Amino acid sequence: MTDPLPDAEVRRRQAGRARVMALLLGLFVVLMFAITIAKMTINQ
Amino acid sequence: MTSLPIERPSAVTAEWRDLFALTKPRVMTLVVFTGLCGLLAAPVPVHPVLGFTAVLCIALGAGAAGALNQWYEADLDKKMKRTAGRPLPAGRMEPRSALHFGVGLSAFSVVLMDIATNHLAAAILAVSILFYVVIYTVWLKRRTAQNIVIGGAAGAFPPLIGWAAATGDVTLLPVLLFAIIFLWTPPHFWALSLFVKSDYAAAGVPMMPVVAGLQSTRRQAFLYTLPMVAAAIAPWPLGLTGWIYGAASIALNALFLLFAAAVLANKATDPAKMKPEKRLFGYSVLYLFALFGALVIDARLIP
């Protein structure tokens, strides 16, 4: 059985994942916007 | 400010690097490259944003399939030196997190592909993920020495997906590109499994050298090389590509055949003396990069 991690380490990992997730969500929004514009350009 | 008490759904909280490692980034390189080549070799212009998204979806789909593969095979990975350091066997992640990540990423990649390109590309992407996870990982890998022959089809889908994303259909050339990777997989993997045989044997995976012996594996690797060479050269005489691809393909395949023949002639049982096997494995990766690179150069220079 794996020993539980210290609280500080759990916090650090959670913060790291949250930052990466925020960055990915931001990039996803930008990508969806770009896809929408590209589709509109093609349809014109 | 008082911080909230830490919720502990499990003893292990994975880092984002572990989630990234689940996607097998090194394997993804070849998948992304062949997918991109399929897209660029298609005879229609693709909007850069949509082309980028299609390749991104191929990468995410491959990563998702890799994560689900690692979730299912954590017990096997623990027994092999090569894979024991992965996040699940090393205990850095809960299996349930890997499963959720893999399923979520699969669905996301297919839906995004459908939004950005077309239903056909999204459908082939979904089939390729299911093929790798269900047919190869769950069904074949632990049951038969032919696991990578049939399972190799999973890695052969990317150029087909790239082509379908660009054109909305599938013609003879992308089918041949599929066939090349499908037939390339046995000599590529069996060359590797010849010199890491003890690792597979320790894990109880019925890889060809463990089940049929070294010489039989060398013979079969050579036999699969013959139709692979035929499929790789075929696009040129069939008029599907120009002379740049034709010349590159003949040179690359001649060298592949030479290295596969050297493996066939080798009788060594000690991995330290398996230089031809290591050379074939290394060259096989370079071969696929060079062949698909030549295809794109040919398609772009000779319209």
Automatic annotation (TrEMBL), chain B:
Membrane spanning residue stretches: 27-46, 52-72, 93-113, 119-139, 160-184, 221-238, 244-268, 280-302
Enzyme Commission identifier(s): 2.5.1.141
Location of the protein in the cell: Cell membrane
GO cellular component: plasma membrane
Pathway(s) per entry: Porphyrin-containing compound metabolism; heme O biosynthesis; heme O from protoheme: step 1/1
Record's keyword terms, sorted: Cell membrane, Heme biosynthesis, Membrane, Transferase, Transmembrane, Transmembrane helix
A biological process term (GO) from this entry: heme O biosynthetic process
DNA damage in keyword set: no
Pfam families: UbiA (PF01040)
Keyword Glycoprotein: no
Coiled coil: none
Single GO MF descriptor: protoheme IX farnesyltransferase activity
Domain of life: Bacteria
Major enzyme class: transferase
Catalytic activity: heme b + (2E,6E)-farnesyl diphosphate + H2O = Fe(II)-heme o + diphosphate
Bilayer topology: Multi-pass membrane protein
NCBIfam families per record: cyoE_ctaB, PRK04375.1-2
Other known facts: Carbon 2 of the heme B porphyrin ring is defined according to the Fischer nomenclature.
Similarity section: Belongs to the UbiA prenyltransferase family. Protoheme IX farnesyltransferase subfamily.
Function: Converts heme B (protoheme IX) to heme O by substitution of the vinyl group on carbon 2 of heme B porphyrin ring with a hydroxyethyl farnesyl side group.
Protein name (Swiss-Prot/TrEMBL): Protoheme IX farnesyltransferase
